[in-house]
Structure formats: structure tokens, C-alpha cells
Specification:
Chain B: Keywords: Cell membrane, Membrane, Transmembrane, Transmembrane helix, Transport. The complex is a heterodimer. By secondary structure, chain A is α/β, with parallel strands linked by helices. Chain A is built from 11 helices and 12 strands. The two termini of chain A are 22 Å apart. Chain B has 2 domains: 76 residues, no CATH class; 227 residues, MetI-like (MetI-like fold, Orthogonal Bundle). A two-stranded antiparallel sheet of chain B has the order 1-2. The longest helix of chain B is centred in the middle third of the chain and has 39 residues. The chains are: A alpha/beta, B mainly alpha.
Chain lengths: 328, 322
């Protein structure tokens, strides 16, 4: 993995939201590396800051109330946070694209899907409308939409959720991006459609070779696709390793808890309830002192309640933010 | 779509029948206008009234009278105005252009001011200009039309002398060319048009603002930004088109309301249009004239309701009529 060139390098990213009720440290020191052509998973519960990380890369944090207050996001070695609005605009949708969770609402209801895809193409590739149309139909074909010529002039409401997500993917890939960010792109879909879309994304990744950042709360989604997995908790990365490592020997108690709570069909059925992580995600307004996971952690000690652990490389390529990592 | 339009047009006839029936009943409840002549005109005798009643068919039952009237109305016989001593249709036709010009100008001014302000207020929410627009909108909604009209007349007509105080055109304009006549009318109509549209303008500002704010939070606006489109394209292509869908209906349905407002505005600015005609007709119990003018209003209401539905379908591809 490491012999490939680094595409995105996020260093100590901090994105806060300033609400009437107080400051929400949605992302509080996230580090993340994505190599060229690598599929990286970012996994965590709702509110752990994974979507905010994605929107920070795109520089699409709604301001107010949100603001990126610190850190760097290097893309090809250049800090995206130092770019002005015009420069970042030309990267968005061209070199870095994003697909979102809600295919039902992510497309504009009053324009045809052909219109919406070719709009992105003409913008970034500076080509003529007729050529853009040809390219759009190619893209629709590529993402497995039947009869792309007819679909070109259809409106989003004339399509199913799965088809719309395919349209979103076609739009995102139309300019051959180097990074595709998929923010819970399959969450809102039926499981069968979900599998189809994941298959499609995997196939396109092989074909086109772009890097993908998959953001999900569903470990099963990244299990099949990701090369590297990052586990986020309360605005920080708590564990980062290759997908194999994470599933084989999780070192952080939170990752361990997540994996334990997945029902396994291979095991003999018992009447034991499925294990769950005790307690709740901390309120963003009242982050616990010390390690943020300590109130829910079965291994927490006095030290965990006082001091915040640094993220450390325990074995080559396996990073864990814990004073008492689980022994493999 | 074509079938829908035809069906809707055919529905207009029974709809107008029902509306006119209610207007007829309501007007007949105000009393027998011929009988009231006994108190207002000392030279008239009871026998003359009875005779007149027979001539006008007032001795017939209400329903029969209505059928006669509707048949005549349908064939273009709108009756004779006692007050103006002329055919109702002729009176209405003569005054229609003024009122339509007034309504049209008022509509254009209101839209041209309200929608940009609404958009700006939404884009710069809680800015000084947003607060100022909000304050002005509430001022506009709360302002009584007749008083505001009088204040404008006092300022621009009397104190500054920039605009004429009332009427519709200057003397000797009949021979001037089109442009001169147009500018002349504009000078007379600008003040009443602003007065007439003030309340709609104020509320449209608010509606545009809230519609725009709602749309700006939508996922597809984020998608548009994620594509790398410029903020201008995001707002004016992707957000505005969606934000205007509910506004279109609002605008269309407000047009008949402008007609109602014209009654007051034309009276304050002494413009001899349909509004003032209706005012005179009602205050002098001129039944045929009242019926005729109220029917014009009814037709405007049904037509613009229909227009609202059609435009809605054009603006929003999700709406399909069959």
C-alpha cells in the first residue's frame, strides 16, 4: 500500500460548529491518509464526524454555523484549506467528487438527469454541449443504466432510488476524479440494491482506478471493499489499519465492541443477546475528560479518565489510540 | 395535458353559473332597488314603480329572473345601467384598459421589487438589509391603502409636484404618438400602482425569502455545489427555480385580488376604471352594473386560478395533469 503515492493527507483536521447551545467539535483532530487508487473506509456511529470530514475535504461545510478551525488537508501535496473559493471550486466535481446518502433528494427535481450530468461535464471539461451529451450517455451506460438515450431526458422523480444513485455516481465520475467520496451512499437503499451499487462502485474503481473514501456506519460495507479502514469515535480516529487487520485483530476496545455486535451466521445459535457497546455516544456539548470512549469502555482505568491517549503505531501500519490496547 | 386544458375550459361555464347565482342572490338580498326610489325620488308614484317592476321583470320569482339574466349575460346582453344611462357592457369595455393597465403595472412593480429583495434577504439572512426588508414588509402589510395613497399624493403630488394627483391622462394627449401617450399614462398610474401593489409586494417578499431559505437547505443544492458550480449558478439555476414554484401560484392567485384593491385605489386617485365603476354601482344600487362588474371579477378569478394550475405544471415537472 505504502509504495503508492499519497493522494490525500489529512493532518489534525478540526471542524467545529458554533450553535446557539454551544460549540460542537464535530471533527476534533482527525488524521487520514489516502493513497492513489486506494479504497479507504471511514467507519463510525452517527455524530462521530465522518460526514463532516468528507464535507471538509470538499470545503462544503455550511458556514455559519460550521468552520474548519485547524489542520491541513493536503491533496497532491497542496493544502486545500489554503485555497480560495475559486480554486477549490475547480477541484470540486473535477478531481474530487462526492456522492451522498439520499439519492431521493440529492438530484434537482426540476432538471432532467441528462441536464444535471452534462452540466458538470461542460463545466470541467470545457467541451461543447453535443459532446457533453455523448459523454453523459456514455457515463449512464457505464453505471449500468439501461436505455441511456431515453433516460437522458428523464426527471429524477421518474427513477427509482437505486437508479438515482447510479445517476449520482455517473455525475461524480464524469470528470474522471482522482478521489471519490461516498458518504453513506448505500445507506438509504434496500439491501439488494445496496449490494448492486457496491458491486458497481467496486467494478468502476477497478476500471477507472480512482481512490475512494467510503464513509459508512456499516462495517459490512467496508469489509468487502476497503483496503484500509479508519474507525472514528467522537471526532477522532481511534484505530487505523488494513481491512484484514481490523477484522482479524482489532486493538481498540471500541472497534472490538463494534465487531462483536455483528451477528454471525456461522456460529451456533444461542439464546444469548447480541453483545452491544454499553452506554451512548457522548453529547458533543459535554465531551468526557480523558479518552472520549472511557465512559463506555470495559477496560477503562483512572489514567483513561484523566489523560487523552495519543494515536500510536503498534505494529507496522496499525495505529491505535488507546492506553490499554487489546492484545492480538 | 391538452385534454386537461379542454376539460378545465368546459368547467368554466358551470362554474361561472354557480358564481353568478350566488352574486345574484346576494344582490337581491340588498332589497328591491326600484322600491327604494320611492324614498329617494319624491315625484315617483307607487303605480309607476309597479309599472317599472313589470317592465324590468321584477314581479317574477327570483329564480326565473336569474335564468333570464344568465341567458342574456351569456349572449352579451349585460343590461342597462340606471346610473350611467348606458349599456353595462359598453361601460365596462370603456374602463377595462385603464384597470388592466393599473393592475399590470402594479403586478410588474411588485414582482420586480419583491422577488429580488426576497432572494437577497434569504442569501444574507439576519443581515442589516434582511432586517430592513423585514421591517418594510411588515410596514407594507400593515399600511391602510387609502391612507398610504393620500400620503403619497401629499408628498409627490402636492409638496414636490412631481406627479399628477389623479386621473388617467393629460389633456391634448389624444393626438400624441404612442410613446408619448404611454409615458403620460405611466406618470398618472405609477403612484396608484405602487399603492395597489404594496400589500402583495410586502407579503411576496416574505414568501420568496422563506421559500428560498427552505430550498437552500436542500440536498440538491449541496450536490450542485459539490459539482463545482459557481455560487451564482447554484443559486440562480438550481435553487431559485425550485423556490419560485410555490411563488408562481401565489402570484397568479393574487391577480384577482388586485382587482378588488383597484376599487379602493381608483376611488382614492379618481381614476375612472372598473374598480370605481363597481364602487358607484354598489353605492347607487345599480343592479345590472353591479352584476356585470362582479362577473368580470369572477371571470378573472377563474381564469387566474386556471393559469396558476397550468404554470405550476410547467414549472414543476413532477406535476402532471391527465
Amino acid at each position: 500500500m505504502d509504495n503508492r503515492e499519497v493522494l490525500v493527507d489529512i493532518k489534525n483536521l478540526r471542524t467545529f460548529f458554533y450553535t446557539e447551545d454551544g460549540v460542537v467539535p464535530a471533527v476534533d483532530g482527525i488524521d487520514l491518509t489516502i493513497h492513489q487508487g486506494e479504497v479507504v473506509g471511514l467507519v463510525g456511529e452517527s455524530g462521530c464526524g465522518k460526514s463532516v470530514t468528507a464535507l471538509s475535504i470538499m470545503r462544503l461545510i455550511p458556514n455559519p454555523p460550521g468552520k474548519i478551525i485547524g489542520g491541513q488537508i493536503f491533496f497532491h501535496g497542496e493544502d486545500l484549506l489554503k485555497k480560495n473559493e475559486e480554486e477549490i471550486r475547480l477541484i470540486r466535481g473535477d478531481k474530487i467528487s462526492m456522492i451522498f446518502q439520499e439519492p431521493m433528494t440529492s438530484l434537482n427535481p426540476v432538471y432532467t438527469i441528462g441536464d444535471q450530468i452534462s452540466e458538470a461535464i461542460t463545466l470541467h471539461q470545457k467541451i461543447h454541449a453535443t459532446e457533453a451529451k455523448k459523454r453523459t450517455i456514455e457515463m449512464l451506460h457505464l453505471v449500468g443504466i439501461p436505455e441511456p438515450e431515453q433516460r437522458f431526458s428523464q426527471y429524477p422523480h421518474e427513477m427509482s432510488g437505486g437508479m438515482r444513485q447510479r445517476v449520482m455516481i455517473a455525475m461524480a465520475l464524469s470528470s474522471n476524479p482522482e478521489l471519490l467520496i461516498s458518504d453513506e451512499a448505500t445507506t438509504a437503499l434496500d439491501v439488494t440494491i445496496q449490494a448492486q451499487i457496491l458491486d458497481l462502485m467496486r467494478g468502476l474503481q477497478k476500471k477507472l482506478g480512482m481512490a475512494i473514501l467510503i464513509i459508512t456506519h456499516n462495517l459490512a460495507v467496508v469489509a468487502e471493499m476497503a483496503d484500509t479502514i479508519n474507525i472514528a469515535y467522537a471526532g477522532k480516529i481511534v484505530e487505523s489499519a488494513s481491512a484484514r487487520e481490523v477484522f482479524k485483530s482489532p486493538r481498540h476496545p471500541y472497534t472490538y465492541g463494534l465487531l462483536k455486535s455483528i451477528p454471525k451466521f456461522t456460529e451456533k445459535r444461542t439464546n444469548e443477546p447480541l453483545p452491544a457497546i454499553e452506554g451512548m455516544v457522548p453529547s458533543p456539548y459535554h465531551m468526557p475528560k480523558g479518552c472520549r470512549f472511557n465512559p463506555r469502555c470495559p477496560f477503562a482505568t483512572e489514567k483513561c479518565r484523566e489523560e487523552e491517549p495519543e494515536i500510536l503505531e503498534l505494529t507496522p501500519g496499525h495505529l491505535v489510540r488507546c492506553f490499554h490496547p487489546i492484545e492480538p | 395535458m391538452r385534454n386537461y386544458i379542454i376539460r378545465r375550459l368546459l368547467q368554466l361555464v358551470p362554474l361561472l353559473l354557480i358564481i353568478s347565482f350566488f352574486i345574484f342572490i346576494t344582490l337581491s338580498l340588498t332589497g328591491n332597488s326600484l322600491r327604494s326610489l320611492l324614498t329617494s325620488n319624491p315625484r315617483i308614484t307607487a303605480e309607476t314603480i309597479t309599472k317599472l317592476e313589470r317592465i324590468y321583470g321584477m314581479d317574477k320569482p327570483l329564480l326565473v329572473r336569474f335564468v333570464y339574466w344568465f341567458k342574456a349575460f351569456f349572449t352579451g346582453e349585460w343590461g342597462y345601467s340606471r346610473e350611467y344611462h348606458d349599456a353595462v357592457l359598453v361601460l365596462i369595455k370603456a374602463r377595462m384598459p385603464v384597470t388592466l393597465a393599473l393592475m399590470g403595472l402594479s403586478f410588474l412593480i411588485s414582482v420586480a421589487i419583491a422577488i429580488p429583495i426576497g432572494i437577497y434577504s434569504a442569501l444574507k439572512q439576519y443581515s442589516l438589509l434582511d432586517y430592513a426588508a423585514t421591517a418594510l414588509a411588515f410596514f407594507g402589510m400593515a399600511m391602510p391603502v387609502f391612507w398610504f395613497g393620500l400620503m403619497l399624493m401629499l408628498l409627490f403630488g402636492v409638496k414636490l409636484g412631481w406627479l399628477p394627483l389623479g386621473g388617467y391622462s393629460s389633456q391634448g394627449m389624444d393626438t400624441a404618438n404612442f410613446l408619448m401617450r404611454f409615458l403620460d399614462h405611466l406618470k398618472y398610474l405609477i403612484m396608484p400602482a405602487i399603492v395597489l401593489g404594496l400589500q402583495e409586494m410586502a407579503s411576496w417578499t416574505r414568501y420568496t425569502r422563506s421559500s428560498m431559505l427552505e430550498v437552500l437547505r436542500m440536498d440538491y443544492v449541496r450536490t450542485a455545489r459539490a459539482k463545482g458550480l459557481s455560487e451564482r449558478t447554484v443559486i440562480y439555476k438550481h435553487a431559485l427555480r425550485n423556490a419560485l414554484i410555490p411563488i408562481i401560484t401565489l402570484l397568479m392567485l393574487a391577480i384577482p385580488g388586485l382587482f378588488g384593491g383597484a376599487v379602493l385605489t381608483e376611488t382614492v386617485f379618481s381614476i375612472s376604471g372598473i374598480g370605481r365603476l363597481l364602487y358607484t354601482a354598489i353605492t347607487t344600487s345599480d343592479t345590472f352594473l353591479s352584476m356585470g362588474t362582479l362577473m368580470v371579477l369572477a371571470i378573472l378569478v377563474v381564469i387566474f386560478n386556471f393559469a396558476a394550475d397550468l404554470l405550476y405544471a410547467i414549472a414543476d415537472p413532477r406535476i402532471k395533469y391527465s
